[in-house]
Structure to design on (832 residues):
């Protein structure tokens, strides 16, 4: 039987090629997900290694101890120290190539080149106070020798000459400044109270011995001294890595790709074994048992799966590299770690999925009677769906509808879970009902297109309708891929539309002014300056602070002028009233109400214990979540802030500006920009810009999802091409007979192209409709008053999906059509 399997593989390489392509693509996605997960960890380790480059020991402050110049001098005099560098960082906003103010981090270049956490890319590092070097990503809009304007903490501009660019890993943001200056240049940006850490390089002693000496000289009193290896372990443990989230995200799409590939493989082996009915029956005639036939088919599938999985494994490296290039910046490296886990998992999954997908066709092959070997031709049989399939499809449909009805009346978290279960039930019902729907649909498509396409449409409909199970299986792979992408695309469009509507409802101001530096207050006179601009009707400050709510603890709170509510700010009120807020009143968010149990009418003793301030809860709200207009966990009147704040720090986080009725924002904007020249660190954002800030992350996520789903759709079209290719081989005599009756080569090829379009249209339309139903359900479940999620159809993206499916379908049929058209009349009708 082993020789039989090997001979079969050698005799039928073309028939197994497209199945192998589907397996390889699916394994490439799985391997790419695993490689990408390891790449995140590798990039993080690389970032930590560069941050601690050359450091045999690190010194940090664990309390109130200060790492200052005297301490650094003492470190340098410690026995065993070859070099020691203090690292100081500062915020250094600068204007980018478009003129917008952007925050950036700056540090002084270490004198010891072995302790520099970056590599020179072009030019040189700064040596004078008026020179600067920039990271490659930040320097994209600048050229060497150009003057760069950087602002200090007080908004005073400083001009530096760009003398070089450098590279450094950006993963996790560890030790990754955008700007590097000389120590004198960094001091120009503001007084430096000390260093954040001190890096020490050893001279002829071990790291452990160096740490022991440093502990004797500077250790204790809130100063920690550890080896570079210990510091690296601590950073890796503390760093917020997205490895787990990315692994889950890509693994989900890898699973989708493998499900699609499994459908393609099962369909391919079903057709292959139907074509080999005589061969398998002949094996039975010469003494092969059913178990031997079953084992031989599985062995053939395992061999194909192994070869394709090896190719897919290396393809996964390309997938991981492409995704890193797509999502990374100009400085981000491409990491391609190939671990033993990845190799074993990719090969095991590829072989296992292939064997499982071929198990049922193999079992069916054992049912072929030996007498079939006596037939001169074994044509493909019409495979009609039976009553049990219809009963199962109806049951799954009712189950999905029932779960959806329960989701509409459940809490958000429970409703989301029920929605996922309902979606799975509907997907399964659709795949189960596919053979029941395929026949009527393709017959309808044939009737509609016959006046335009003539005999090609009629033949295509007859061929697709003759075996609706095969047609449905070919379309199912495309249905699954497009259902997922249409679901997420529609939900994302709904979230974006909901954010826009929520912003319009809850934010009554036309502009929001914020500081580029989050901890830097806006000038106190800026509110009056902007209020004096013609066309400005109102300016209201919004301040955030940490407030004490007595026995309930400390929380992040917001203070606004009482009459700004209902006009400049209109939060969604769930209970109580919030048209204004005054002294002695408190409004709380839904989150704080759940955490503390407070409700409208309750009184809180806020502020210090020695002088508590009674605050009465007047409303529970679901707050505005917009940069510069966030209401935090609790809201009080502006004069109330000083009485309940935990410290004396008070700054204006933002200003809310409303224009006079009938005033155009475009007319007032130049005057506002001119007025804000007195506050160079202030940023003016209109409502369209705020909407763009909210929408940009959604678009990036959606674009990445489309790139991922494209692979599963590619597998689906490989399945359509595979099915058509094998179907052409099965219908060789039929094709030859049609040619003998007068059908031209072009007509025969055209009928296959139209059949491919029918299958693609059936799968695409089913997938799109199947994705829209759960999307509607999810928008209803997830929508709240403050954060509405609208059911908005993204017509442009959905049209692109459908158009891509229809354009790709004839390409999938290109090779099968050429093969059918080239069949000789005499060879095709010869008995076999």
């Amino acid at each position: 039987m082993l020789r039989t399997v090997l001979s079969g593989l050698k005799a039928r390489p073309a028939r197994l090629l497209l199945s192998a392509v589907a397996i390889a693509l699916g394994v490439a996605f799985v391997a790419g997900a695993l490689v990408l997960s390891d790449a995140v960890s590798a990039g993080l380790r690389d970032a930590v290694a560069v941050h601690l480059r050359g450091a045999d020991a690190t010194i940090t402050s664990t309390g109130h101890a200060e790492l200052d110049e005297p301490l650094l001098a003492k470190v340098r005099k410690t026995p065993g120290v070859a070099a020691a560098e203090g690292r100081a960082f500062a915020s250094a906003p600068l204007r980018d190539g478009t003129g917008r103010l952007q925050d950036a981090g700056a540090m002084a270049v270490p004198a010891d080149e072995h302790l520099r956490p970056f590599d020179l890319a072009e030019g040189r590092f700064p040596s004078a106070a008026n020179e600067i070097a920039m990271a490659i990503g930040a320097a994209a809009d600048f050229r060497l020798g150009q003057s760069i304007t950087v602002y200090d903490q007080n908004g005073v501009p400083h001009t530096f000459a760009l003398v070089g660019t450098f590279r450094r890993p950006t993963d996790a943001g560890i030790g990754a400044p955008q700007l590097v200056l000389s120590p004198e240049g960094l001091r120009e940006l503001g007084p430096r109270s000390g260093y954040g850490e001190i890096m020490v390089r050893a001279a002829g002693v071990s790291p452990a011995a160096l740490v022991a000496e440093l502990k004797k000289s500077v250790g204790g009193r809130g100063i920690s001294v550890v080896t570079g290896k210990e510091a690296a372990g601590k950073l890796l443990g503390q760093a917020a890595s997205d490895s787990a989230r990315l692994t889950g995200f890509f693994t989900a799409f890898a699973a989708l790709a493998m499900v699609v590939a499994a459908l393609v493989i099962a369909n391919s082996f079903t057709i292959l074994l139907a074509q080999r009915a005589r061969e398998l029956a002949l094996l039975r005639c010469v003494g092969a048992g059913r178990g031997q036939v079953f084992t031989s088919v599985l062995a053939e599938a395992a061999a194909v799966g192994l070869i394709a999985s090896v190719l897919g494994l290396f393809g996964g490296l390309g997938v991981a590299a492409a995704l890193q290039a797509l999502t990374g910046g100009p400085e981000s490296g491409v990491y391609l770690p190939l671990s033993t886990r990845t190799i074993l998992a990719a090969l095991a999954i590829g072989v296992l999925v292939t064997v499982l997908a071929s198990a049922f066709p193999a079992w069916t092959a054992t049912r072929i009677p030996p007498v079939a070997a006596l037939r001169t031709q074994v044509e493909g049989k019409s495979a009609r769906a039976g009553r049990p399939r219809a009963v199962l499809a109806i049951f799954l449909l009712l189950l999905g509808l029932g779960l959806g009805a329960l989701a509409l009346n459940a809490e958000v978290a429970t409703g989301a879970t029920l929605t996922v279960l309902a979606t799975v039930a509907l997907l399964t019902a659709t795949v189960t009902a596919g053979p029941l729907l395929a026949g009527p649909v393709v017959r309808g498509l044939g009737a509609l297109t016959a006046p335009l396409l003539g005999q090609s449409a009629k033949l295509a409909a007859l061929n697709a309708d003759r075996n609706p199970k095969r047609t449905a299986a070919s379309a199912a792979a495309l249905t699954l891929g497009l259902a997922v992408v249409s679901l997420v695309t529609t939900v994302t469009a709904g979230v974006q539309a909901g954010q826009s509507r929520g912003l319009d409802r809850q934010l009554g101001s036309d502009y929001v002014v914020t500081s580029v530096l989050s901890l830097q207050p806006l000038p106190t006179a800026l509110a009056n300056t902007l209020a004096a601009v013609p066309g400005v009707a109102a300016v209201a400050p919004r301040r955030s602070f940490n407030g004490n709510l007595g026995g309930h603890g400390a929380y992040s709170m917001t203070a606004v002028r009482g009459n700004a509510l209902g006009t400049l700010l209109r939060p969604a009120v769930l209970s109580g009233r919030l048209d204004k807020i005054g002294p002695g009143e408190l409004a709380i968010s839904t989150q704080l109400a759940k955490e503390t149990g407070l409700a409208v009418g309750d009184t809180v003793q806020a502020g210090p214990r020695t002088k508590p301030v009674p605050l009465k809860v007047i409303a529970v709200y679901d707050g505005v979540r917009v940069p510069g207009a966030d209401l935090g966990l609790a809201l009080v009147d502006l004069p109330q802030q000083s009485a309940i704040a935990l410290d004396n720090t008070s700054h204006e986080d933002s200003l809310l500006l409303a224009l006079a009725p009938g005033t155009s924002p475009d007319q007032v904007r130049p005057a506002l920009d001119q007025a804000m020249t007195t506050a160079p660190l202030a940023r003016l954002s209109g409502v369209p810009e705020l909407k763009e800030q909210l929408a940009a992350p959604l678009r990036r996520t959606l674009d990445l999802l489309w790139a991922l789903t494209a692979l599963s759709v590619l597998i689906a079209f490989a399945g359509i091409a595979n099915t058509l290719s094998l179907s052409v081989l099965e219908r060789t005599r039929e094709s030859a007979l049609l040619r003998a009756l007068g059908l031209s080569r072009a007509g025969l090829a055209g009928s296959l192209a139209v059949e491919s379009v029918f299958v693609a249209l059936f799968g695409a339309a089913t997938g799109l409709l199947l994705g829209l139903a759960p999307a509607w359900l999810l928008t209803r479940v997830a929508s709240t008053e403050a954060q509405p999620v609208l059911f908005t159809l993204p017509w442009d993206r959905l049209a692109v999906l459908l158009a891509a499916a229809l354009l790709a379908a004839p390409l999938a049929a290109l090779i099968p059509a050429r093969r059918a058209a080239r069949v000789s009349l005499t060879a095709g009708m010869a008995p076999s």
User: Anything to note?
Assistant: Confidence is low (pLDDT under 50) at residues 376-382.
